[in-house]
């Protein structure tokens, strides 16, 4: 596996996620419209707010996983399963670049 390519892909994904988290965080913090007087609109606004919070949390979790994967590259452990120590597998790392477990341990 080409670790330079894996690192570049992780850094690119990290930038995308940082941008998304910044947008969701901005949306959460800058809600300047008053809550609607209509119940149906209030429900929709609450659903939208919940979705934005979920996207924010998901983005932060993925950023954490990417940070961990980048640290594993630096430590020379990127291709090794964190649980059993066996190789994770190139195809798995291509599909999920921040995977830290082989397919058997992940199941």
Q: What is the straight-line distance between the termini?
A: 23 Å
Residue runs with pLDDT of under 50 for 5 or more positions: none
**Helix content class:** 55-70%
- Figure out the total of helices: 4
Overall shape: elongated
Give helix and strand order, one letter per element, not per position: HHHH
Please state the average pLDDT score: 86
Oligomer: single chain
Q: Taking Cα atoms only, what radius of gyration do you get, to the nearest Å?
A: 19 Å
Q: Report the count of strand segments.
A: 0
Query: What composes the largest sheet?
Result: none
Structural class by helix and strand composition: mainly alpha
Query: Strand content of the residues, in percent?
Result: under 5%
How would you sum up this structure, described in words?
With 107 residues, this protein is mainly alpha-helical. The longest helix is centred in the middle third of the chain and has 37 residues, at 39-75. It has four helices and no strands. The chain is 69% helix and 0% strand. The radius of gyration is 19 Å and the shape is elongated. The model has no long low-confidence stretch (mean pLDDT 86). The protein has helices spanning 3-29, 39-75, 90-95, 103-106. α1 (3-29) runs antiparallel to α2. It has a domain at 3-29 and 38-78. The chain starts with a helix and ends with a helix. 11% of the residues are buried.
């Amino acid at each position: 596996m080409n670790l330079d390519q894996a690192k570049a892909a992780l850094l690119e994904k990290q930038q995308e996620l940082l941008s998304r988290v910044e947008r969701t965080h901005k949306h959460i913090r800058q809600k300047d419209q008053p809550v609607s007087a209509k119940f149906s609109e209030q429900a929709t606004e609450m659903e939208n707010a919940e979705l934005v919070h979920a996207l924010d949390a998901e983005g932060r979790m993925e950023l954490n996983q990417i940070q961990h994967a980048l640290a594993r590259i630096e430590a020379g452990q990127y291709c090794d399963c964190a649980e059993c120590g066996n190789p994770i597998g190139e195809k798995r790392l291509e599909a999920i670049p921040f995977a830290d477990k082989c397919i058997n341990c992940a199941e």
